[in-house]
Amino acid sequence: MSTKTNLTRRNFVAVSASTLGLALAACGGSGSADTATTEATDAAAEYTLVTEGKLIVASDLDFPPLDSFEGGVAQGFDVDLSTEIAKRLGLEVEYLPPMDFDSIIPLIKQGGKADIGNSAFSITEERKAEIDFTDAYLDSNLGVAVKSDSGIAGDEAAIIEALNKAEMTVAVQAGTTGEAWVLENLPNAKVVPLASVTVCMTGVSTGQYQAFCADLPVIGHQCTVSFTDCQIALEIPTGEQYGIVVSKDNPGLTAAINQALADMEADGTMASLKEKWFGV
Predict the structure, then answer these.
(1) E strands within 96-157?
(2) In which region does residue 86 sit, left (phi positive, over 0), alpha (psi from -120 to 50) or beta (all else)?
(3) Do the Cβ atoms of 122 and 240 come closer than 8 Å?
(4) Which pLDDT belongs to residue 34?
(5) pLDDT tens digits for 101-117?
(6) What is the pTM of this model?
(7) Residue 185 structural domain
């Protein structure tokens, strides 16, 4: 049975140091080596915050049910996740105003305005070159939404053939893996990168765009709740995993969040959040 641990910045350092100290004592290492190794561990475990006592989060807040901005309030699975992580670190969560998705990683990389980016970021090697990711917390695939009466249907090959034409316009959210998939698999179609999922889906609903490619949980939510005249034409098994974005200059924060995520998995909190927002 796992023991739930609430890690503040201070006791995260203390736990790491004491655990390492016990291990070294058992090995019979020298005093100078013990001190040097413990100091190195303390340095890795410490982290900085933009504002003391707060975990400041950057998100586009337009990706329901992962994140959205309803009545001026941030909500969704990722928002609840950020709030729970902050609680376990002894911090108060604070969301910045909604921003364009493709501006979040540069913001975290630059530093000074937000501690983390949490906006359904798929872990990719390209992104890892710029920032660090926490451990994965959610699996996802991609999906393609079309107007229900569009006539675009069939197996994957048939749908790709129907959309991969010069007269077809496909909406994507700029900077996403959905955009990357469309550019690779629908090279003949006109690709329109937009800032908002809502704008993309509205364009499909009104006939301005013939399709929209994005993460499957979001596509499903949009077609079921907000744009019932649209449907999922294609599910794309990409096997993506979501991670939280942290600056490479703040490895201690990544480690602390990873511990919080592991504890949430062990004590059932993660399962409860998934059931709340996805029904599974």
Answers:
(1) 116-122, 132-133, 138-147
(2) alpha
(3) yes
(4) 43
(5) 999 999 999 999 999 99
(6) 0.74
(7) 140-240
